[in-house]
Amino acid sequence: MKRDHPNLCKPLALGDVVLRNRMASAPMGATDITAEGTPGPRTQGFYEARAKGGAASVTVSELVVHPDTDGSQMLHLSLATPGQLGAFAYVADGIKRHGAVASIELSHSGQYAGTYMVDKKAKGELCQWGPSDGVRPDGMPVRALSAEQIADIVASYAEAATLAKRAGFQMCMVHAGHGWLLNQFLSPFFNKREDGYGGSLEGRVRFAREVLGAVRQAVGLRFPIELRMSGAELFDGGYDVEEGCCIAQALEDLVDLIHVSAGSYQFGFSITHPSMFREHGVNVPLAARIKQCVSVPVATIGGLSDPQQMEEIIASGQADVVAMARGLLADPELPNKVMANRGDEVVKCVRCFACMAERPVTQTRRCAVNPLIGRELEGFEVAPVLHPRRVLVAGGGIAGMKAAHTAALRGHDVTLCEAGGRLGGILNTEEALPFKHDMYELARTYERLCQRAGVHIIMNQPVDAAFCEVFKPDALIVAVGSEELRLPIPVEEGAWVVGIDELYLEAADPGSEVVVIGGGLTGCECALLMAQQGRVAHLVEMGPELAPDANIRNRPILLEQLEAAGVDIHVGTRALAVCAGGVRVADADGAEQVLGGTAICAIGRRSRSAIVDDLRDGAPFVRIIGDAQRPANICLAIYEAYHAALDI
Length: 648
Fold this sequence. Notes:
Elements: E1 12-14, E2 17-19, E3 23-29, H1 41-52, E4 57-64, H2 84-96, E5 101-107, H3 120-124, E6 128-130, E7 134-135, E8 141-144, H4 147-166, E9 171-176, H5 181-186, H6 201-204, H7 206-219, E10 225-230, H8 241-251, E11 257-261, H9 269-272, H10 284-291, E12 298-300, H11 307-315, E13 321-324, H12 326-330, H13 334-339, H14 354-362, E14 390-394, H15 398-409, E15 413-417, H16 437-452, E16 456-458, H17 465-471, E17 475-478, E18 482-484, E19 497-499, H18 500-505, E20 513-517, H19 521-532, E21 536-541, H20 554-565, E22 568-571, E23 574-579, E24 582-586, E25 592-596, E26 598-601, E27 605-607, H21 609-615, E28 621-624, H22 634-647
Parallel strand pairs: 3-4, 3-13, 4-5, 5-9, 6-8, 9-10, 10-11, 11-12, 12-13, 14-15, 14-17, 15-16, 17-28, 19-26, 20-21, 20-26, 21-22
Antiparallel strand pairs: 1-2, 7-8, 18-27, 23-24, 24-25
């Protein structure tokens, strides 16, 4: 067959293994880990799903090689722990039996040990080790490793690689990026040593060469070794891409594939994991530059999930492999879809950080657009029903479309009615925000998926009790969404209050200066957009902080964006009235002032409860989902929609 993305679909030989295509599953932390560091059954299901979805290789992450100097809640591998080797063997088997290459990431966090520990007290009691004595930006003291400790860590890398190979892994990745220990030695910012492991580039790469050499000796010549490195550290005092090229050249004789990432944990989370405020493929130029300087294949990573963009990366010679983490959380079937010329059906990552925000809070995984992440053992396939039902879905937002699509996949006769003239619901507002265009595209993807699954779609058709009496559904899923709250303050004659829907969907022009009332996630994003468009933007929030409804990973990045854009922020401030010249506000001490500009109401939304109440008896089976149940977020809406369809 003729491939739509022929370069992405080409195989690649590495040592004794062949990658079946150029789409790799990048390192992602395990789902359930025991106190001893053993992977649990959910972990096997998690990685196996990526293999079953068509990824060329699946990298298990992170195997901590030296727990004595790297206390963490990540994976360990030791013969001293009964059953541990077997657990790793089952994970490797689960990956290999679907045609993917099973790889494992060998890691040491160095001075960032305990990064993912939930117990903050225990994390604070860890001894942090690095190349040099010092103090982390958060005040944590760091002690320099001795030459004897370095030798012991080098040996531990070799031992871990030996055991991983014994467990059935076919490739290993040595993590030397993102500010972890090997990167700390490579970095002139962290490494202030005056012995043979510091100073010149030759000294700073010595530790990494010793580790890679020991691993190579342990696994043999034909066992592929991948090096994960930051192409550039991208902060003051760190190395740039030209020195990154020198590092890659100094290590390439010991590896089979160089995986080029970017940044450092402490100084650039949104660089290492590109946020919605950065362009897709922002780190690709680093891989492209390093590829010009080395003779081994190079992989690129960083916020990639669009098949056409990835095809162009490979076709243009910027990289040999595209690695994805969040892209394969959102849609594990992405490689299979590309191989089958169904690239337009890929459910792309929306870069909301729900996945990364959940891990430090509950040690679980969650994805805003994939309800099965970390829960693959509960059933990865949508099983067909024995007795198809007549299903009516009221509302064509993301919750309604997800429910309709899932029910159609099960074999039900599904009709979706949308009261307006366009599917997508609240996601249609995201078209106006360049940094949230991925959210808008999600709506268009599900519109295609519903059509191809055979969902009967009726536009401009509201659903009420009378309609249900005529339609007579066996099951009714109510996804009628929410509506904006109105400002509960006086609006003087001649003043204008713009709602979010009016602003985004109707392209209302609020003028050159605005006052956004409401500092939740929606209000913050609105104020940011207004400032990016060149308007003077004031942001008023009556609570003590902005965006409390944003997750812990996205929130600090959003706040940085607001500051960089010059948004005038007023927290602990109440809006008293909207007047012709602006908005009269009062701070926590009662001092009043008028902020000039058009008022934009962003105080929240409420469920369309009257419609919901009218539909509660619309069918024998009724389920209320998404904002119709309670205004929340896309993650909860999709989870409820998926399971509502499964419950019919």
